[in-house]
Write a structure and sequence with these properties.
Keywords: Membrane, Transmembrane, Transmembrane helix. It is a single chain. It contains 7 helices and no strands. It is mostly helical. The chain folds into 2 domains: about 30 residues; about 150 residues. Helix 3 runs antiparallel to helix 4, helix 3 crosses helix 7 and helix 6 packs antiparallel against helix 7. The longest helix is centred in the middle third of the chain and has 37 residues. The chain is flat and about 60 Å long.
């Protein structure tokens, strides 16, 4: 058991295999289509992305000031770079699978241009909120974090300037994630 659960890639592989078995076991009552498969991946990657957004905002950021200076290197040198890898690629893959699902589902253009009403309009608002959030991840948070974590060279002044920029963009994403999640789920309530 320890060998199995100690291997992240193996656990993920078995989890995906179990999901595929379920998909095809219930295929007669819940057909597996390119749309449903893409939407499933969209939800998976979205959970990775938003889960890490919440981890960063609810746990890591508020806890960092309480960690003794000699122990911060463990977070900034080992944990944070891994968190930000999954965070930014979770964002990217969420956007890609969401746009692909919208295109396959036939509501992408209407939703993104707010031509759809009701359900289509609500999903469009959610899509734009997600796109803004992904922009923040890749073009504000990640460049600032690379300086803060020492992944790229930066002076002490540049690091100090990067910290509030990253925090504000991250808190903006936290704020936007709440209505964005309602839009995504609410569009399916109807």
């Amino acid at each position: 058991m320890a060998k199995f659960f100690g291997n992240l890639h193996l656990v993920l592989s078995v989890g995906f295999a179990a999901a595929l078995i379920l998909m095809f076991s219930f295929h007669s009552s819940v057909p597996v289509t390119s749309y449903s498969a893409t939407l499933w991946l969209h939800v998976f990657f979205g959970i990775v992305w938003i889960g890490l957004l919440y981890y960063l905002n609810f746990v890591q950021v508020p806890t960092m000031p309480k960690i003794p200076a000699e122990q911060k290197g463990a977070i900034t040198g080992h944990i944070a770079p891994k968190v930000f890898f999954f965070f930014r690629y979770g964002a990217l893959l969420t956007v890609i699978t969401g746009l692909v699902a919208a295109a396959i589902g036939g509501y992408g253009h209407e939703s993104l241009t707010f031509q759809g009403v009701g359900k289509g309009g609500l999903i469009g608002v959610g899509m734009w909120l997600g796109l803004i959030m992904a922009f923040n991840v890749w073009f504000i948070i990640w460049p600032a974090q690379k300086k803060i974590l020492g992944i790229v060279e930066a002076t002490a002044e540049e690091k100090a300037a990067a910290a509030p920029r990253a925090l504000y963009a991250s808190r903006t994403n936290l704020l936007l994630s709440i209505p964005m999640l309602y839009c995504m789920a609410g569009a399916n309530f109807a």
